[in-house]
Amino acid sequence: MSFLSVEQSLTGRRWVGPGVEVDRASEMMAQQTSLPRSVCQVLARRGVPAMEAKGFLEPRLKELLPDPREMKDMEAAATRFLDAVRRKQRIAVFADYDVDGGSSAALLLVWLRQMGLQATLYIPDRIDEGYGPNVPAMQELAAGHDLIICVDCGTLSHEPIAAAKGADVIVLDHHLGGETLPDCVAVVNPNRQDESGDLGYFCAAGVVFLMLVEAGRQMREAGAKGPDLMSLLDLVALATVADVAPLIGANRALVRQGLKVMSARKRPGLVALSDVSRMDSAPSTYHLGFLLGPRVNAGGRIGKADLGARLLSTDNPHEAAALAERLDELNTERRDIEAAVRAAALEQAGARGLETPLVWAAGEGWHPGVVGIVASRLKEAANRPAIVIGFDGDEGKGSGRSVSGVDLGASIQRLAAEGLLVKGGGHKMAAGLTVMRDKLEPAMQRLTELLAKQGAGQGGPADLKLDGALMPGAVTVDLIEQIEHAGPFGAGAPAPRYALPDLQVRFAKKVGESHLKLSLSDGMGGGVDAISFGAFDTALGPRLLEHGGARFHFAGRLEVNTWGGRQSPQLRLEDAAEA
């Protein structure tokens, strides 16, 4: 049965409320633990037993961080890494151009600098070189270095790693592994085919951090002391959230502790980036995912690939300020490029039909740096896996995003193995590919078949899951802070979403190109402000702007809005339905 009898909202979704079991469990938890009911609702929905509630609310790395040696090759990787440090060998870090790659590289660069070593940073150009190690780059690095560490890439790079003659290579990655591994010192990857997959939720920066934990253990066993690893957790938190790694297990503790480290404002790059992003409150997962992450990514998307890693690793405030300013400019430019590609891709995919198991679009000259973001928008619009490809002549570079329960990375790898792609890989929720123009249609047809076998495309718009209903008078800063205590929220741990029923629109204003600012009222003196990002990309914006005095049910997530030093509750509006 639908929640508040909403079978079809303004965005075409059915609203679904918490089940009777969740209500009962939260009530019992509130009685047994004396925790606020709002917190108990969140924990019950996550399936946390009452006896584990207090431990869940205070995640501790000491208890949640796995033994690094649970991952294959970890001991060998740390041993060779420390050998290079002791012998003051020349070390190069080859990283991916996204936030996870940049953060992973920064972890190593900062750690090595604290040990008195300067490593070489190499990040390939997205357009000229593409993702991951390539033969010329690895040959060049091998000629001048003793050890090359590939982070957030390398698991499928057999030929480029073999080309690194004269240098040892370590891979620290999390992307899906193939049937064979490159021939090198170590491939540490929780998503190798011979791993259990229990630690597959770590992003690359999490894997790098675990390698540094193992290195620290080996140093202590030898009577030596290494750098303070806790001070590096801001980088791990940024990567974990921005790479949309699930906030489960140790990731919860890494992000929670990392946000505390970040709030101390000790890392020049993150301080400068926070300032140009106009962050006016303590860092949260929202800031990492939507303010900081996109700016770090902007260099790799449309600018110089190494800007993000340089920003995150610098200890010079002046250099940090200049790099942050440049990344902010590039992010603005990226938005404009993305908007043009998004409009064209949505039109093309819509004409092809959004009801198939795979939604895809391809265009000449679409910038490779924005196709992943546009694929995300397509996925959200259709609730289906999406691929967006930009062609330059006969070669197209694309990116894909998947929905829960559909492994896109494995299907893309299958296409590459069948010869339909030049190359391709990734993980369950995201993948990259290169395809020739004459193989485009057969590749997309085959991918559609593979995804259909996994159940893609069987549903319409996703149901909107709600955690309950609140009246405006109950929405306070105190309530929101109580709920935040059950975080951090993000992938795999969504923030609770509430309905505010039967309210009037007191004030509505379009903000920017597609956002909507609202003031809502219950007509009896109670009210709350709301903001809806991207409202005019759907039917939500036009209908609420021209509300005509109608009453609506509103649904979204609660947040604290800080303005001019004052805090007030705000609804981040996601959907609405006529009451």
Report on the architecture of this protein:
This protein is α/β, with parallel strands linked by helices. The chain is built from 20 helices and 17 strands. It has helices at 20-33, 37-45, 53-57, 61-64, 74-86, 99-114, 135-144, 158-162, 204-221, 233-242, 250-263, 268-276, 285-302, 307-313, 317-352, 371-382, 408-417, 440-453, 477-484, 540-545; strands at 15-16, 91-95, 120-122, 147-151, 168-172, 186-188, 359-364, 386-392, 395-401, 423-426, 430-436, 464-465, 498-511, 515-521, 527-532, 551-563, 566-578. The strands form four sheets. A five-stranded parallel beta sheet has the order 3-2-4-5-6, sandwiched between helices. A hairpin with a 3-residue loop joins strand 13 and strand 14 (515-521). Helix 5 (74-86) packs across helix 9 (204-221) and helix 6 (99-114) runs parallel beside helix 14.
Low-confidence parts, pLDDT < 50 over ≥5 residues? none
What is the mean pLDDT? 95
Percent helix: 40-55%
How many separate helices?
20
| Strand percent estimate | 15-25%
- DSSP summary, beta strand count: 17
Topology:
Layout lengths: L14 E2 L3 H14 L3 H9 L7 H5 L3 H4 L9 H13 L4 E5 L3 H16 L5 E3 L12 H10 L2 E5 L6 H5 L5 E5 L13 E3 L15 H18 L11 H10 L7 H14 L4 H9 L8 H18 L4 H7 L3 H36 L6 E6 L6 H12 L3 E7 L2 E7 L6 H10 L5 E4 L3 E7 L3 H14 L10 E2 L11 H8 L13 E14 L3 E7 L5 E6 L7 H6 L5 E13 L2 E13 L1
Parallel strand pairs: 1-12, 2-3, 2-4, 4-5, 5-6, 7-8, 15-17
Antiparallel strand pairs: 8-9, 9-11, 10-11, 13-14, 13-16, 14-15, 16-17
